[in-house]
Each structure stands twice: as C-alpha cells, then as structure tokens.
Amino acid sequence: MAGGGEEAATARNKKVVLRRHVTGFPTEEDMEIVDDTAALHVPAVSTAAVLVKNLYLSCDPWMRGRMSKHDDGDVVPAPDFVVGEALANFMVGKVIDSAHPEFKVGDHVWGTSGWEEYTLITQPESLIRIKNTQLPLSYYTGVLGMPGLTAYAGFMEVGRPKRGDSVFVSAASGAVGQIVGQLAKIAGCYVVGSAGSDEKVHLIKTKFGFDDAFNYKSETDLSAALKRCLPDGIDIYFDNVGGATLDAALLHMRKGGRVVACGMISQYNLEQPDGVRNLMTIIPKAVRVEGFNVGGYVHMYARFEEEMVEYIKEGKVVIMEDAVEGIESAPAALIGLFSGRNVGKQLVVVARE
Amino acid sequence: MAGGGEEAATARNKKVVLRRHVTGFPTEEDMEIVDDTAALHVPAVSTAAVLVKNLYLSCDPWMRGRMSKHDDGDVVPAPDFVVGEALANFMVGKVIDSAHPEFKVGDHVWGTSGWEEYTLITQPESLIRIKNTQLPLSYYTGVLGMPGLTAYAGFMEVGRPKRGDSVFVSAASGAVGQIVGQLAKIAGCYVVGSAGSDEKVHLIKTKFGFDDAFNYKSETDLSAALKRCLPDGIDIYFDNVGGATLDAALLHMRKGGRVVACGMISQYNLEQPDGVRNLMTIIPKAVRVEGFNVGGYVHMYARFEEEMVEYIKEGKVVIMEDAVEGIESAPAALIGLFSGRNVGKQLVVVARE
User: Fold this and answer.
1) Alpha-carbon distance B204 to A246, whole Å?
2) Least confident range of A17-21, B16-20, B44-48
3) Contact (CB, 8 A) for A257 and A236
4) A311 to each of A148, A171, A234, A304, how far by Cα in Å?
5) Mean of the per-residue pLDDT values for chain B?
6) In chain B, at which residue ranges do the beta strands (DSSP E only) sit?
7) Does A263 touch chain B (CB under 8 A)?
8) Of A103, A195, A207, B17, which one's alpha carbon is 20 to 30 angstroms from that of B147?
9) Do A263 and B283 make contact, defined as CB atoms within 8 angstroms?
10) Is A76 on the interface with B (CB under 8 A)?
C-alpha cells in the first residue's frame, strides 16, 4: 500500500549516471556511479506508482543509441539518456511498495527501470508481473524478456522459417543469437552461427546445438566462410551485427531469402557507418531485408512466454548468462558488449532478493 | 502452318550482336550491326516453333547485367549474352509462320526475342498473343508489357499502398517510374518523383500528374530535397536507381515504410558499387527493403493487363515513349538509358507491320 502516513524510510540508492553524451566508442568514463538516497515508499499523492527494488539489470547493445545525442525528428527506439541522470533499461525487480492495484508488495516484475538500486515507476502499465517464479528470475532479462521476444518475433514473424531452411545467425552466442539458433533447430532448419572467439564458436556448436559455426575474427574472407558452411546459400540471415558480415551474407542469400535486420552492433560506435555494397543483389534474388525492432511485437508476449517456458522446461532451449555482481560493475559490463567480452546474455546482479 | 515443302524464302536479317563482354560503362562499340539472312519459314522438322518478325524492341536497363560475364553460381535474372550472338529482350512482333497451334500467321505477340529483324522462337510458350490491338502495339514493350507489370506488381504487391501514403519514385519519367506514379495517384497516395533534367521534372508534374518532383542532378543535397518535398517522410520508396538516392531516401522513411528495390541503374556500370550507409535506420523504423523482380509475378499478367487497359482507356494512365527508328539505332538507344538521354519508355521501331 502507498506509504502515506508512515515513517518515510529511506535507503542508499547507488546509480549509474550518464556523464556526457557519447560519440564513437563508449567508455566507462562516460558513466559514473553516484550515491543517492531513495525513499522506500510510494509518495502519498500517487494513485498508481510502484516502488521497485532492482534485482537484475539487463545490458543490451541497443542502449548505445540512447547514449548519443540525437537531433529532433530522428526516429529512435527510445529517447536519449539525459546527462546527469541514471541510464535505463529492462530489469527484473521486486515490488516493495505499490499504489497500483495490480502490483502487490513482494511481487516480482520485469520492465523498464533506471540503472539504480530502487526506482519509483510512475507508469507501471509497462511492468509485467512474473508468474513463472520456478525459473531463474534473471531469465526475464533475457530468454523470457525482451531479447527472447526479439529472437522469437524476429525469427518467426519476419524470418518466417520453413522446415529445411538454411539459417545464418551472427553474434550467435549473444542474448538474442543463442535463442534464434535454438528456435531455428526447433523449426527444422539447418543453422550456422558466427561469433568472435573460438570459445564462443565451441559453445554455439555444443551447448546451443547449432549445426556449424565460425569465428569471424579469424576468418580472412567472410564470404568464403559462408560458402564453406552454407554451400547452398542462406534462406534466413538473422543479422545482429551489420557491416562486413551483412555484406558477405547478402552475396549468399538464396532466391526469396529474408534478412532480419535486428541489430548492427559493428556499426553503433562508428561516426560514419560502413557502406553496404552488395545490396543490389537483393533485386535478382527477390530478397527481403526487413528492419526489426521488438516494439511492434509486444502484443505477442503472452503467447511467446508460454511457448518459451515450455521449451526451457523440456530442455529444447538452454541459456547462457554472463552475470556480473553489483551495480558498480554495470558500466564495464555495458562497454564489454561492444568488444564482445561477454559470453552469453550480459546482466548485472544488483541484489538477489 | 509450318513451311515444310514450300520454297525456302529468305530475307535480310540485321542483328545487333554483342562484340565483347562489358565491364564498367557500356558503349556502342560493345555491339555491332551484322547483316545476316533469315529463313522466313519454320523448319519442317519443328512441331512447335514460331517465326516472328520483330516490330518493336524494348530497351531496358536490366539488359546491362546480361552484357557482363558472370561467374558460375551468380544469381542473375537471365543468362549472360553470348559474344557474337544477338542481344535479346522483350519485343512486340508479328507471326509470319507458325508450327504452334496457339499462334497463327498474322497474330501479334509479345515476349522475348533476339535483337534482329526476324527470330525463330523455339519455345513459344513464353509468347503472349496480343488481343487489345486497338491500343498502340508498342505499348506491349512498356505499359502493357514487362515494365508495366513491374510497376504494377512492385508497387501493389511489395509496396502495398494505403490511401494517404506518401510515395517517392526515382527515375520517375522512365518506363517503370511513370507508371508507378500514376498508380500511386489512383491508389490515393501523395507522390513525388525525381529525374535527371528539368524537362523530365516538368513532364512528371504535368503529363504524369505527380504532386511534386525534383531534378536530382541540380539538387546539392538529396536529403534536403526529400525533406522539402516530403516533410512528413516517405511510406513507400519505389527505387529504380539505388546509390545516393536510396541512401538519402532511407533517412526519410517513416515507421513501417517499404522500399521496393526494383532497379539500381546508378550502380550497373560501377565496378565497385557505392556503399549504402544508412541501412541501419531500417531497424528503429521497422522498414522493409524488398528486392523485386518481375519474374515472380508473371502469373498476375492477365489481371494486370485487364486493369491497365481500363486505366489507359479512361485516361487515368498516360504514356510517354521515346522511340527510335531502325534496328541500327538500337545500340545508341540502349547506351542512352545509362546517361538518362531517353525521355520516357525507350524502344526501337524495327518495322511497323
């Protein structure tokens, strides 16, 4: 209940604050850890807010875009972060006070909050109450959260797999890629992944069950690597990286192929993006290159969650997380995404309960 | 009927022959006019061939691809032209002998034949008999032929227009572009075109009824030109040119926008294509960039023809042709496409009857 007349308890509230807008490659120094204080009750005047203790913060490549300063009118998936304020992203948290009838103290929720220990969420309609508490809560930053829905909706709705399709996934050990590959196997596809280390390539082939994989950093010719792994071409390319890998994949798309343009992490820190030179090949091959962002697919969440929980329980989808401890570790974890330091879904454990 | 026992009449048969495979910008010297002789009867052994007198030859940008030598395994819309043999493309012709029950002497047909005066067509299943002989026969090289079907299927099936959509068309006075713009008006869209001369811009706005148009050669900033003409952005970009125009258009696509990648004439003569730098914008805007070639839509021809004939009769679609006389003029007409010399649909009148 809203903490109207009660004693206004407070707690330390460490935050990860944006120090300056970023151009080029971000560094930890673009952020700083600030000690603040949070009231542990929803303000008495509120009729709807929820106070959440953040347990797990999600680190996702798309946050890079929000660290830049955009021009008015630029189409962006979410507003720029504000200098001097906490970054924000998806999290799993626990309700510690609530003025909203749908959320009760002790509920676990996932949704968007600040990169801080406690967040007062004034529009809790964006929160989703977690029912499947028998699975690790952290899964709601990944396989059962936005990266999972991204993989599912992007692959199923935009990629439209058919049994026997050849699928290529870049950043294949990452939060989205690892799930796309496993969904592709479930759909009866042949699936090849790329990643940036031999350790990741090994994981992709063993833990995630891809049919084949290659280390893009040690290949001298990406097109030749694709030809070797997928001699008959690609029906679906699930693109998480853009740049040279996209350009090479375009050369190998089959007639009627689909490129799910989900992310282009190789490009996020460039002031001038690489030019994609092989786009012309989509004409004779009638290839569809479709930009995907999960914002348009949130209505699918309930169906997705039900299906994915089953896959996890049956062992058809396995998950690899890269969890760092403590909110102070968050800036390095975020920056590490852009050098591929993480192995699996990157998240920050702020607290376990 | 097949000319089995009859006298083997012959005629002069001038041909446009490929002299060498082309890299870079093609020239008239890559072709030569050769005097040959044609038998005017289907060979007695044939049970299906049709001998066609070519009346109108179509000049289309896509022929450029066939003038190059491709590697085995390259996906191309049609085989490379053979050095020493006649080029080939769509034509309108008249049957002067036939061993095929569906085609009779005197029938007008359209389909693919050689760049020559007479062609023996051994697979006449690819020919279409022209029923609407009350319209100019040359229309079957354009608005009622492959360019028309390209415009119709590309715009309607890939572009999927909705009333009120903002549409941008490049090469808007060309064979395909002029029709796309008029179909966009019929569909209740706001339509802007680009072209390479003030004369063409004037035509686009007056004769073809586009809402606005600009000369891409005299604009210093294509993005600014698009912003001026389409301040609220683009729902459908029908791309005939690729390169810098595509890159600029990507910046102005609206959420959920569609790019019909139909042609990239700005790129056909480059040994290294321009890089498209703004492709990343398709992700936040969920833009679909779909390669289109008419090969997959031939089944729509009958429906398309019926609808288009009505539009022409009602004056809702008007046509501009750029016709040159004589097969000797064909090489220059073809080369002229790549400098934008033609105004409207380029064709060659080989004979009128």
Assistant:
1) 36
2) B44-48
3) yes
4) 12, 22, 25, 11
5) 95
6) 10-18, 31-39, 50-58, 88-98, 108-114, 118-121, 128-129, 166-169, 190-195, 212-215, 234-239, 253-261, 288-291, 321-325, 345-349
7) yes
8) B17
9) yes
10) yes
Calculate the alpha carbon distances from A341 to A171, A296, A344, B272, B297 in Å: 12, 30, 10, 34, 47
The average confidence (pLDDT) of chain A is 95
Of A281, A288, A293, which has the smallest distance from its Cβ to B286's Cβ?
A: A293
CB within 8 Å: A276 and B272: no
Question: A268: nearest CA in chain B?
Answer: B280
Minimum Cα–Cα distance from A282: chain B residue: B291
Could you count the other beta carbons within 10 Å of the beta carbon of residue B236?
A: 28
Confidence of residue A188 (pLDDT cuts 50, 70, 90): very high
Amino acid letter, residue A21: H
The identity of residue B301, as a single letter, is: Y
CA distances to B49, B54, B165, B269 from B44, in Å: 10, 21, 57, 43
Q: Do A291 and B285 touch (CB under 8 A)?
A: yes
DSSP 8-state class, residue A196: S
How confident is residue A5, by pLDDT bands cut at 50, 70 and 90? very low
SS3 B125: helix
Residue A104 to residues A108, A253, A302, Cα–Cα distance (Å): 9, 50, 21
Residue B72 has pLDDT above 90, yes or no: no
pLDDT digits (tens, 9 = 90+) for B202-219: 999 999 999 999 999 999
Q: Which of B243, B299, B304, B298 is nearest to B270 (CA)?
A: B243
**Phi, psi dihedrals of residue B172, rounded to the nearest 5°:** -75, -15
Question: In this complex, which of A75, A273, A281 lies closest to B284 when CB atoms are compared?
Answer: A75
Phi, psi of A18 (to 5 degrees): -75, 125
